[in-house]
Every structure is written in structure tokens, then in C-alpha cells.
Amino acid sequence: PRRIRSPVRVLGQAAAMNRRFSTAVGAAVIALALVPGAARAATVYSPLDEDILKTSIQGDRFEIIGGKIAQTHAGSAQVEALGARLVKDHTKSLHEAVALAKHLGISVPSTPSTSEEWELSAVASVTGKAFDVAYSGLEVQDHKQDIEEVHTEQEGGLNRSVIAMEHKDLSTLRYHLHLDRKSTRLNSSHI
């Protein structure tokens, strides 16, 4: 004998299937709506993000030029090594920052800021012990400012990629500040 399904049961199963289908379609529509938003969020940036990214690129260029000057003007092996370390680390940071700026459509500064260029010309005008003292002091102040800018971006930035890049650079900047202070202490104790 064949079992006859109750019309109520069949309608209940159909309604349940329809609810599952509607839920699946709804979830798919939401997912599709979110994907473009997520992609858009990766390229949306605030004026702060743009300023911090450009400042970071200019700062990297400043550090690379300054580090190269240190390698030729330093009076001590420690300051020469500090310059080499800053060239190495900031060259890597520069490549990452430039790539991110291009991805976001932000113009890439080709030089340090005007004030940074002036600071470089001032320290480049001396050599030996005078250079070591001037350069170490300049680097302490510069890295303090860099760290403050990272905190500003973390607190007020919009673009997750810019915030992540700045956060990643934070430990390197703190280490550079440690090296700068160590160099300053050594050079000021020998004056």
C-alpha cells in the first residue's frame, strides 16, 4: 500500500524549504553587497591617512639621505653604523609605503620635506665629532616625531592598510630611537 502524504505536512516541508532557500539567497545577497564594500574600504582613505603616508615617504627619503651622509661624515664607527642601519631599514619602509600610496592613488613625494632638506644640509656641513653630535641629536628628535605620528594615525586613521603599515613600523622606529639615544649619550660624554 502506498502512503498518502498529508497536505499539511507537504505544505509544511515546502514552506521550510522555501525559508531555507530564502535565507540562503538573502545571505548571498548580503555577502555580495559586503564584498564591494570591503574592496572599497581598502582603497578609501582620509586626509589624515594621505598626510601620514606622504609624511612617512618623505621621512624615509630623509633617513636614507641622512644615513648616507652619516656614512661619509661620521667621526665614529657607531654613528657610521647607525647611518647604515637607517639606510637599510628606511629603504625597505620606503618601498612598502610607495607601493601602498600607488595602490591608493596617492601622489608619491620624490624628496624629503623642505624642513628635512634644510636639516640635512645643516648636518652635512660638519664632519667628525661635530657631525656625530648634530646627527645623533637630530635623529632622536626625528624618531620621537615619527613615533608620535604613528600614534596619531592609529587613533584617527581610516584606511586599515595605512594603519597596519604604521603599526608595523612602530617597533623599528622605537629601536631606531634607542640607537639614536645611545649614540647621543656616547657622543655627548666625549665632548
Description of the structure:
The protein has six helices and no strands. The longest helix is centred in the first third of the chain and has 37 residues. 85% of the residues lie in helices and 0% in strands. The protein is an all-alpha fold and 191 residues long.
Summarize the structure.
The protein is mainly α and 191 residues long.
Layout of SSEs?
Layout: H1 7-43, H2 47-73, H3 77-104, H4 114-124, H5 128-156, H6 160-189
Note the main attributes of this structure.
mainly alpha; 191 residues
Percent of residues in beta strands: under 5%
Mean pLDDT: 85
Give the overall shape: elongated
Could you tell me how far the N terminus lies from the C terminus, measured between alpha carbons in angstroms? Answer: 109 Å
Q: Total number of β-strand segments?
A: 0
H and E order = HHHHHH
Largest sheet: none
